[in-house]
TrEMBL record:
InterPro entries: AI-2E-like. Pfam families: AI-2E_transport. It is a multi-pass membrane protein. This is Predicted PurR-regulated permease PerM. Keywords: Membrane, Transmembrane, Transmembrane helix. The lineage of its organism: Bacteria, Pseudomonadati, Bacteroidota, Cytophagia, Cytophagales. Signal peptide: none annotated. It is found in: Membrane. It comes from Hymenobacter arizonensis (Siccationidurans arizonensis). The keyword Transmembrane helix applies.
């Protein structure tokens, strides 16, 4: 039986093959842009899933590929560890910190009282120059506004965590297809993909595992120091120090420095000097020592890359930007090196022999 002829076969297409190729590329880029815009609110879920995939993959490889454990059970175990060790404690600590900040912001008189005591002790007038009351009231309005936002975003938080866990599940369960897809669809040579993968590994190790370890040690040391020298509520300020430790250069001095000023303001000069000595001699040096040790062991990342990346990442992605920001800067540097290498190879191929 003769197949029916295609009535559109004889119609001439107005585009050249190159034009069709370019239009296809633009169409793909446009659709990808629309997808990213539509998922922008939940982009952190997918970024976090990718980061945790890199963090837990050595455990996955050891248990599934080497010991031949059931991949579904291992994946579910990893998800449970993520929820119990990361999601629940982090949400609880964030809620605690937010509640206490709101209480401080709603009662600026308590902070003004400390400021006036520092003024009396030092003889220098801060209030008139910095308009402390106005700044605190503005901060109170802003922080107080977080409460309805936090309440309204509870469902959004659950959706983000659900998407993250769902994505992690399929990244591990379909690991081979995922990695093959990266090699197939990313427009880079294999050596470039290896460089990008190494940059991702180094950034995750340095800015997740290493940074969390450094922040945890500094938070514990700060809390113990404040308790020894009789600063009120040392556990809370230890939690604040844990979060502040993620900031390069400033870090925990933003916590124990004001604590020393507070002790000076109430006449506890010995305790204040003790806080400053422990802060400068122990906490700061432990921070520097740990960073130097972990920099080589867990990812050789230049401090300037981390600093620029943190500022960039937090502004764009929020908290997850602590990792994504330095990764973006590292990827930019890697791609610049790839660009230099490709141009050198092209020039060498064009040289007549």
């Amino acid at each position: 039986m003769q197949k029916p002829s295609d009535p559109f076969a004889a119609v001439e297409n107005i585009y050249t093959p190159r034009q069709r190729y370019l239009l296809l590329v633009f169409s793909l880029a446009g659709l990808l842009g629309l997808m990213v815009m539509g998922l922008a609110q939940y982009l952190t879920a997918f970024l976090a899933a990718g980061i945790l995939f890199v963090v837990f993959r050595p455990v996955w490889v050891a248990l599934v590929h080497q010991r031949r454990w059931n991949r579904r059970l291992v994946t579910i175990g990893i998800l449970l560890v993520t929820v119990v060790v990361l999601v629940v404690p982090f949400y609880a600590l964030s809620s605690l910190l937010l509640d206490r900040l709101v209480n401080f912001a709603k009662n600026p008189e308590r902070i003004l009282e400390v400021v006036h005591k520092v003024e009396n002790a030092t003889g220098f007038n801060f209030t008139a120059q910095l308009n402390v009351r106005e700044l605190l009231l503005q901060g109170a309005n802003k922080v107080s506004g977080w409460l309805p936002t936090l309440a309204s975003s509870a469902l959004n938080f659950l959706v983000v965590v659900g998407l993250m866990l769902f994505t992690m599940y399929y990244l591990f369960m379909q690991e081979t297809y995922f990695l093959l897809g990266l090699h197939r669809y990313l427009p880079f040579r294999n050596e470039t993909l290896q460089d990008l993968g190494e940059a991702l590994k180094n950034n995750v190790n340095a800015n997740v595992l290493g940074q969390v370890l450094v922040a945890l040690v500094q938070g514990i040391l700060t809390g113990i120091t404040l308790k020894i020298f009789s600063v009120p509520d040392p556990a809370f300020w230890g939690v604040v120090a844990f979060f502040m430790a993620f900031l390069p250069v400033l870090g925990t001095p933003l916590v124990w420095g004001p604590a020393a000023l507070y002790q000076f303001s109430v006449g506890a000069n010995t305790q204040a000097i003790g806080i400053l000595l422990v802060g400068f001699i122990v906490i700061v040096n432990v921070d520097n020592l740990l960073r130097i040790m972990l920099a080589k062991r867990m990812g050789d990342i230049h401090p300037l890359v981390t600093l620029v990346g943190l500022v960039l990442g937090v502004e764009i992605f929020g908290l997850i930007g602590l990792v994504v920001g330095p990764l973006l800067v590292s990827y930019f540097l890697v791609l610049m090196e790839v660009f230099r290498r490709e141009n050198r190879l092209r020039r060498e191929s064009e040289v007549p022999r």
